[in-house]
Structures are given as structure tokens and as C-alpha cells.
Amino acid sequence: MKITDIRATTVTVPLEAPLRHSNGAHWGRFVRTIVEVDTDEGLTGLGEMGGGGESAELAFAGLKRYLIGHDPFQLEELRYKICNPTASLYNNRTQLHAAIEFACLDLMGKKLGVPVYKLLGGKVRDRVPFASYLFFRLPNEKGEGEIRTVEQLIAHTRALKAEHGFTTHKLKGGVFHPDYELECYRALAEAFPEDRLRYDPNAALSVEQSIRFGQAIEGLNNDYFEDPTWGLNGMRRVRSMVRIPTATNTVVVNFEQLAANVLDPAIDVILLDTTFWGGIRPCIKAAGVCETFQTGIAVHSSGELGIQLSTMLHLGAVVPNLALAADAHYHQLTDDIIEGGKMTYEGGSIRVPEGPGLGVTLNRDKLAEYAELYKKLGGYPYDRDPSRPEWFPLVPNDRWADHR
Fold first, then answer.
1. Contacts of 386 (CB under 8 A, 6+ apart)
2. What confidence tens digit (pLDDT) does each residue in 227-242 have?
3. Could you give the CA distance from residue 30 to residue 307 in angstroms, rounded to a whole number?
4. 101 and 47 in contact (C-beta within 8 Å)?
5. Are residues 199 and 95 in the same domain?
6. Which one, 13, 18, 142, 220, has the greatest CB density within 10 A?
7. Which residues have CB under 8 Å from 103's CB, separation 6+?
8. Structural domain harbouring 46
9. How many Cα atoms are found within 13 Å in the side-chain-facing hemisphere of 153?
């Protein structure tokens, strides 16, 4: 089997409401690039990458000269064709490689008639548990969906728990003053005393603010304290002063950083992302290193549609040391581009797909609809907040939004 073509289509899919974070916001939609890899046997593999637009489509088109005629089963050769470490100093293609790797694994599974998890060692769990992903939100175009007050946050969490069965809740912070977000986090703990919690301000706090915040929540039912401040050394200082496991998806996102963390620990839980790490297989390799050194792992969300969600499910299926619920933005979406619509949560978890390959199929009508919507709306600046057009954050930040 040989690759004959690579096609990339950028889509934008609506969210229930704009999601705020420490660097800005998702402006009411996600932008994703869907990748299709065709072969001489008539099979097509699916991949997905965050963001994109015209630049991503051109970048994938540029890979054709590397990959036309490539055997999708040759995954190590694929890695060096796209991500030679020396060449990557000049052109980092990690996320492009991830999308192509997804598609090759999808092709391998379709060729052999087996789900991807069977190619990766076999599953150890049938379902992958997820945390709710709680954001402060701006009102949508209908004036609905805002989350700003404690009462709105608790009501939203209660509704998610009732609909999807979540028993772990992650609060995305770094938007309002830390004292107010501490109030919100404590209110979650009080409202859901049986459930697990995690807090992530996207590295917006100083080391000193992080220590103060972390010590104030030590008695709560925390999974971990995710990226309260920037940098390995900053996180190491926080870890020395706060009795909560630290976690990151920002400062340990490759094997060099993982080695540095093993030698001088700053992070207790590594959040593996199938895009950031360059594919499912690099995440499995990293999970093996973490298992050896007894470092915790979880699964990070970078704003997935159904194709990437499937990669997260296959990863979660095969990794024995996944002891914590995965993250997903997925429940914030209003729709998806796969047949059958959005995957469903049951008891806070999603069943691992059993179909050949990744186990998902493109809905061509939805792909066309949301590709057209992207052409109409274009992208949006991730690092800007539409409600504060002149604002930009510092690191650490002291320019907080007004919650009143």
C-alpha cells in the first residue's frame, strides 16, 4: 500500500459559547484542519490538527513531495522524513506529523480490519473516563451561555454532571483575579464534595501567587495543580512548597523536557497530547518512561473534534498507567464532522471505538458545511479576548478581567 495523495480541509465548528482562558479566548468556535491520506488501494486514512487555515493546508500540501509513494506501515521512516530532529530546528513539523501519523494508523487498521488499539498492544480498558472541562465563558450570539459568577459556574457543572456523569471537574482559570478564582474553586469543592478537582490557570500566576493559591486548596479533593506558573524551575519551586501533585501540558511536551524532569523533578503528572507530542505512538513511548519512573500521566485536550478524540480514546485504551481522568473540550462543541454526530458520554466516560482503524467516518455534508463556515468567518486570534480588544496578558499576569 502506497500513499497517493494528501488532502487538508480547514473547518470551524461552533461552541456553546466563547471560552475564556489566561491568554484570551476561543471566540465561539474551534478551527481544525482535517487531513485525508489516500492510497493506491482505495483506502483513505483520517487525521486532524488544531488551528490551521490556509497556512496548514499549504503545509500539508508541501508534505506530498516527502510522502507520495510512502508505505503507511513505515511509521519510523515517516517520523524521520517529517521530523528529523536536526532539520526540525529550521522547520518544526511535530503537529503536522501527528495528523499524518493518525491517518497512517487509521489506514493500517482499515487494511488489517482491526481497531488501532490492537496495533498498539491491545486495550486494557473498554472506556476512557473524562473530566468536565469548566471555562469562564462570554455570552454567545443569543446572549446565552455566560459563566462569570460562582452561581453560574455551579449551575453549569451540575448540568454537565447530570447529562454526562462527570465525577472529576477541571476549572480553567487565569482569567479573573486569583482570589476570585480561589472562591470559585472552593465553591466547586463544597458543591461536589464526592468529586475530584483540578485547577489550571495556564501559567498566569507568579510563583508566589501559585504557592499562596496552592496552599489554600491543599485540603480539597485535588487531582493536581496544573501549570499555575511558567517554566520548569518555577514549577519546581511551587512543588517544593505545595502538597498537591503538579501537572503540565506546557513545560514537558517533548522527550528532552521529559528527561530534564526525570533528572530534577518539577512535574508529578505529565499531560500527554496526541498532537503536541507528535502522534499516538510518541505519547505511548512517553507513558512508558513515566511508568518506569513512577511519574503520573493524564491525557490533555487541545480542542478536539471526533477524529482527534478517537486518537485520545485509543491512547487511553492501551496505556496501563492512566490512573486519572482525561481532559476534553468535546462537550463544549455543538456538533462534529463524523458520521453519527458527537460521541456520547456514559457515566463520565466514552467507549473506545471498535471499528477498523480509528473507528470514525467523515460526514461529508458536515465537513462541507463547516469548511464553508470557515471560509465565511476565517480564524480568530487565540491570544486576544473579544470582550477586551486592547488587552493582552503579561506572564505572570496582573491584568485580570472584571468578574462583577
1. 18, 25, 27, 138
2. 999 999 999 999 999 9
3. 14
4. yes
5. no
6. 18
7. 35, 36, 37, 45, 46, 47, 72
8. 3-113+364-377
9. 27
Amino acid at 383: D
Residue whose cell numbers read 507528535 = 278
Q: What confidence category does residue 51 fall into, taking pLDDT thresholds of 50, 70 and 90?
A: confident
CA distances to 44, 265, 303, 326 from 269, rounded to whole Å, are 36, 10, 20, 12
Cα 372 to chain center, whole Å?
25
Number of domains in the chain: 2
C-alpha cell at 148: 462569570
Integer Cα distance of 404 and 96 in angstroms: 42
Amino acid identity, position 71: D
Residues labelled as active-site residues? 172, 300
| Whether 125 and 180 share a structural domain | yes
In the block, which residue shows the cell 475564556? 20
d(CA 318, CA 359): 15
How many whole angstroms separate alpha carbon 404 and alpha carbon 390? 19
Grid cell of 365 as nine digits:
455534508
Residue 87 has pLDDT above 90, yes or no: no
Report pLDDT for 52.
79
Question: Cα torsion at 277, 280, 284, 287 (round to 10°)?
Answer: 50
* Amino acid code (one letter) for 202: N
Rounded Cα distance between 316 and 125, Å, is 8
Q: What is the CATH number for 61?
A: 3.30.390.10
- What pLDDT digit, counting tens, does each position of 338-364 carry? 999 999 999 999 999 999 999 999 999
Residue 298 pLDDT greater than 90, yes or no: yes
Q: Are 258 and 291 in contact (CB under 8 A)?
A: no
Question: What's the rounded mean pLDDT across residues 277-282?
Answer: 98
Same domain, 235 and 90: no
Together in a domain, 100 and 153? no
Are 359 and 116 in contact, with CB atoms under 8 Å apart?
yes
